[in-house]
Design goal:
The chain is α/β, with parallel strands linked by helices. 61% of the residues lie in helices and 11% in strands.
Length: 249
């Protein structure tokens, strides 16, 4: 059972939220969906800020504000309300000067919800594995799934969809995939300011200097060369943990 008192002690109006959702199960499902998609929404919000696209900035700030209110985060929703109003007024100087309020509020919410859902044992983080080979996907899943929840994608399009709809802890990314390939996914991560926030490990059987250098033009974490084994996977997992130990999430 979730620790409702944890939310209430952090000024979440759970009773008001339950009047909307009706029961704790529906509320928890919506709460978890919000938690799992907040990082991708923040990435889009930051992109709109950097592009000075104040109309879309205001629209997205309004959406986040509304979801927070529905979930009982009344005080936190006021931060996004302020940014919604300033976006509508195209007040870029205010938004840029006060954007840390958005980030700090979002981080606080994510930490709180992580603690809340950890009460139920839902501690496994999402690792996205993108590779067009089901053999590779299944082998990696077998070696990683004890500690992490695995999201699988067979191409770059599916990988991007996973990023848009899930809170992704790490990406294991094959470069050579049909259609939208690994480099296209790297471009997406860079465009939406995710490339330095989510550690990326490149999976490749092409160990030519040109390919590896092209990959390292992006701030990737490491490379997992095919064929790989249990030890090389373990080394990568240690690198991922080290990345987060030195970073405030």
């Amino acid at each position: 059972m979730n620790n409702i008192d944890l939310l209430k002690s952090n000024n979440v109006d759970v009773n008001a939220a339950l009047e909307l959702w009706g029961d704790i199960e529906s509320y928890n499902e919506s709460l978890k969906e919000f938690k799992d998609t907040l990082n991708s929404k923040l990435a889009n919000l930051e992109k709109f800020k950097n592009d000075a696209d104040w109309q879309n900035y205001a629209i997205l700030a309004h959406s986040i504000k509304s979801e927070l209110k529905y979930l009982g985060f009344m005080k936190d929703s006021e931060v996004f309300l302020n940014h919604e109003l300033q976006g509508k007024a195209s007040n870029g100087s205010y938004i840029i000067s006060n954007y840390n309020d958005v980030l700090n509020t979002a981080r606080k919410i994510i930490l709180l919800l992580n603690s809340y859902f950890n009460e139920t044992g839902e501690t496994r983080k999402n690792i996205l594995i993108a590779d067009d080979s089901n053999i590779i996907l299944n082998f990696l899943e077998k070696n990683i799934s004890n500690d992490y929840k695995i999201l699988k994608a067979n191409d770059g399009n599916e990988a991007i969809s996973c990023l848009q709809n899930n809170d992704v802890y790490t990406i294991l990314l094959d470069l050579n995939m049909p259609g939208i390939n690994g480099f296209d996914v790297l471009k997406y991560l860079k465009e939406y300011n995710l490339i330095e926030k989510i550690p990326v490990v490149i999976i490749t059987g092409d160990d030519t200097e040109e390919t590896i250098q092209k990959a390292f033009d992006y701030p990737i974490l490491d490379v997992l060369n095919k064929p790989f084994n249990d030890k090389s996977i373990e080394k990568i997992l240690i690198s991922i943990k080290s990345f987060y130990e030195n970073k405030f999430i």
